[in-house]
Amino acid sequence: MVKEYTHYINGEHVAGKSGRFQDVFNPSTGEVSAKTPLATTAEVEEAIAAAQAAFPEWSATSIVQRSRIMTRFTQLLYEKQPELAELVSREHGKVIEDAMGSVLRGIEVAEFACGIPHLQKGEFSDNASREIDIFSMRKPLGVVAGITPFNFPAMIPLWMACMAMVTGNTVVLKPSEKDPGCPMRLAELWVEAGGPKGVLNVVNGDKEAVDCLLTDERIKAVSFVGSTAIAKYVYATATAHGKRCQAMGGAKNHMLIMPDADLENVANALMGAAYGSAGERCMAISVGVCVGDEVADRLVEMLKPRVEALKIGPSLERDLEMGPLVTAEHRQKVMNYIQMGVEEGAELVVDGRGFSVPGHDNGFFLGGSLFDRVKPDMKSYKDEIFGPVLQLVRVQSFEEGMALASDHEYGNGTSIFTHNGAAARTYADKVEVGMVGINVPIPVPLAFHSFGGWKQSAFGDHNQFGMEAVRFYTKVKTITSRWPSSIIETDFSIPTLK
Ligand code: NAD
């Protein structure tokens, strides 16, 4: 029997009523493992109403109590980390050790959120004017929506939900319809940890559900992570309806490899950063920019045998390096880009097409692919491929390499590998990209910093998690207060400080 997912509204599982479903696959076998109900507008409105009803009590709950509930939630997440990772691995296809790590990166945000009594403090100016104090506080917004992509079904829902809830908001989460198992479990765990019902609701769905969240006037803010085309649409629609919106989009992350870099370190870093999670990471390195032909020649020599020997198999097996892609459709899209690269004249050093795992012939597997001599005017360079494909570009100078990353329409992450401190510092300072690694291939900041790209990789002006999320999920109220010890005189001019 194929499992049928539900929605999770006001702490209860609610069966989908639309009669529309999306298949969830086990990408390692190609079999349909579950069906996701696609909510109607009326079903999303039910979830919004539950969140709206829970808001007055939750926002009035003391900040210390909210922090304690978040602490219990965090403890439960740690306990359930293996179970959550298995759900991620089973539906997304990333190998189990990688899935464990991705869950942990979400738990780290829950941990950070436990410090909310300190983080959400306002400001106070004593005697700002004579006998007048000014103070400000950060108030929750109300009901907020989270809309998440398929590639991190634990981490990204946790980024959004933990920070939104702990600041006093209630949440309607709309996870990817491709792998909703883990986000559904997170909402159950919230209630098991003592979180009030209605504070975290999950509706499953597609465009119809998203459109309702973007336009319903009870939703005060929308946090979105996904592809750039949808991010732009979400940002334009949500803001046109008067909402706060942060919308993170796609990526094409470059690693600049200087002639003085330790190429063994570079090869080790590139293998994990390009092929880990089958390249389905918004912070994957998909372009290696080699400064000088000698660097490129040596790197190709080092990478070729390693890409050919990648350990690929069913995601729940141990000690593998790569699992399958999420769906057959996505695998086809990646294969089309490989073909495009060949037709555009890039040199395909390793071709991952035609790869299969014995006994798992219907799994959505693809081997690793490596391109050399990719040129910046090729469409396969300009577009995000989002698969296990690494493209090497040859440049003759640091400046030419930095310009590639800066001029690319995406600006999520980038890294530089070098022994030259001045080059590293200049790169970090000048490159037009939101997150930079120095001898670190995937510079995803920890929970006490924040995550966000530039250019076509992010729309809106607050990053995910860290203090940026406290700001995104709260609005400032400022109070000017006087307890007069003498008569207040009439003043017809604008009040000025005395
Ligand atoms: P996607 O844009 O297809 O889907 C993201 C969400 O939008 C899903 O919940 C989906 O149901 C919804 N959606 C899809 N089509 C829609 C439509 N027409 N109207 C309204 N909503 C719609 O993205 P995906 O394929 O799930 O995820 C992969 C993409 O996400 C990649 O481009 C990747 O780079 C990006 N990503 C970005 C970041 C980041 O922080 N910048 C992080 C992770 C993933």
TrEMBL record:
PANTHER family, sorted: MALONATE-SEMIALDEHYDE DEHYDROGENASE
Name of the protein in its database record: methylmalonate-semialdehyde dehydrogenase (CoA acylating)
InterPro entries per the UniProt record, alphabetical: Ald_DH/histidinol_DH, Ald_DH_C, Ald_DH_CS_CYS, Ald_DH_N, Aldehyde_DH_dom, MeMal-semiAld_DH
One GO term of the biological process aspect: L-valine catabolic process
Methyltransferase in keyword set: no
Gene3D superfamilies xrefs: Aldehyde Dehydrogenase, Chain A, domain 1 (3.40.605.10), Aldehyde Dehydrogenase, Chain A, domain 2 (3.40.309.10)
Pfam family, one: Aldedh
Record-listed E.C. numbers: 1.2.1.27
NCBIfam families reported in the protein's UniProt record: MMSDH
Keyword flag Oxidoreductase: yes
One of the record's GO molecular function terms: methylmalonate-semialdehyde dehydrogenase (acylating, NAD) activity
Alphabetically ordered keywords of this record: NAD, Oxidoreductase
Residue span, Aldehyde dehydrogenase domain: 15-479
